[in-house]
Amino acid sequence: MFKKIFLVLSFFLLFPSPVLAQKTESATDEIIVKFQDEVNEKQIDEVSKKLGLGIERKLSLPQTFTIKIPDQDIDKHLKNFEKNPFVEYAEPDYLAQAYGSFVPNDSYFSKQWSLGKILAPEAWDINKGSQSAKIAILDSGIDEDHEDLKNKVDLRVNLTSSQTNDDLYGHGTHVAGIAAAETNNLLGIAGLGFNARLLSFKVLDDKGFGYYSWIAEGLYKAADSGAKVINLSLGGQNRSKTLERAVDYAWGKGVVLACAAGNSANKSPTYPAYYKNCLAVAATDENDQKADFSSFGSWVDLAAPGVNIFSTFPNHTYKINKQLNYDLGSGTSMATPLVSGLAGLLFGADPTLSSSQVRNLIEENTDKIAGTGNYWLKGRINAYKAIAAIPGIALPSSEPKTAGAEVINNPVKTDFVPSVASQVSSLSENQKPWWCLLLPGICR
What are 184's strand-pairing partners? Predict the structure, then answer.
């Protein structure tokens, strides 16, 4: 999927695109080198000069640098570094891409059908989270003045070669809205994280690509900036020690990492989703079936809705070129911020929860839809069940147990649209619709 070695993050790919070419790519003029912990700066400089190379950047990972390769003969220089006793490892600076599959915008369908599917309104009835829960979006940036996002972003950091923090590609803005757009504000969409705040770390450039070194740097900086959740709707096909150690660092700082499984429609692992400290997320459709484009397999942890997801897009011209402000998108990139939003909601509901507890609450309170145990391990997320399982949390009098088919449009002024379950339960037996015979759990 990648013929360059920078992470390409647009999980929007249902239509043909050159970005989707199945190739392994890395930077042709840089590699990543990790020196042994005991090696000092003078020795590092001597090694580089001896090999006729120059250090380009020092990464946040200890003793780790990107090295400029003047002749583009990466294999030769990798072997030279690997033979040096001062070097722990050397690897290409791989390229990742955004995972997405855009659906034609003939209609808005049911707008945010996904929130009804995972019982988000019922979860919000229990708790709407807190501004103390910060979700870092590592992507192509977030539109700087979008009406539904500008008041939610606390920090913007650009780690790419782009000249701006703004989102000129479009992917990051769409992802951010799903996770935590401003909610119950009489316009736009609702974000699952509700009161959670956003941190924007631009690790993909204005064409949707980003080097592993950019992403690793984003992981370190997001973890050090107080993020409780990191969303990675991006990936590459190449394993990387640099990227894995950055994931482990964030997890060690108490961060939950939600990572898109990819849109390969097969079992091939993608990175960073494959790493144990990431929640690998597949995509499902309105009928709780695996999306035809979604990656799957025993390495995938769970699933979330990822087809025809209505969310924010930049309010200015951008590369993906969907409608301005709001439109539909599909991909594991869209499923992943639902998991991030849920993690943010849980952290906000109980700030004393650890990352392991939040991950366990999400994984162990899924709905075991068709494909569970085959396409993914745990099931499709259920926001109500996850938040209701927090020890000691106050529950409303009515407790839905399984996800229904509720359609949620824009939030209303004072409260949320009641669920199908709550509407039907108030009817007498002879007033209930015929489909109650098929769904007794909803029509109780």
Answer: none
| pLDDT score at 36 | 93
Bridge-based pairing state of the strands 87-100 and 64-68 = unpaired
Regions of the chain short of the pLDDT cut 50: 1-24, 101-109, 404-426, 434-442
Query: What are the residue ranges of helices labelled H in 227-331?
Result: 241-252
Candidates 125, 139, 166, 167; catalytic one: 139
Q: Are 100 and 59 in contact (CB under 8 A)?
A: no
Sign of CA dihedral 432, 111, 373, 387: negative
Residue 68 tokens, joined:
């400029």
φ, ψ of residue 183 in degrees (nearest 5): -125, 145
Choice among 171, 288, 330, 350 that is catalytic? 171
- DSSP 8-state symbol, 48: H
Q: What is the pLDDT of residue 321?
A: 87
Q: How far is CA 285 from the centre of its chain?
A: 17
Residue 317's pLDDT is what?
95
Contacts of 251-256 with C-beta under 8 Å, sequence gap 24+, read: 251/277, 251/355, 253/223, 253/224, 254/228, 254/354, 254/355, 255/222, 255/223, 255/227, 255/228, 255/229, 255/230, 255/355, 256/228, 256/229, 256/230, 256/340, 256/343, 256/347, 256/355, 256/358, 256/359
Q: Which of 130, 333, 355, 422 is catalytic?
A: 333
Half-sphere exposure of 337 (CA within 13 A, CB side): 41
| Helix, strand and coil in the chain, % to nearest 5 | 25, 25, 50
Q: pLDDT per residue over 266-291, tens digit each?
A: 999 999 999 999 999 999 999 999 99
Q: What pLDDT does 229 receive? A: 98
**How many CB atoms lie under 10 A from the CB of residue 238?**
21
139 flagged as catalytic: yes
Give the model's pLDDT for residue 418.
32
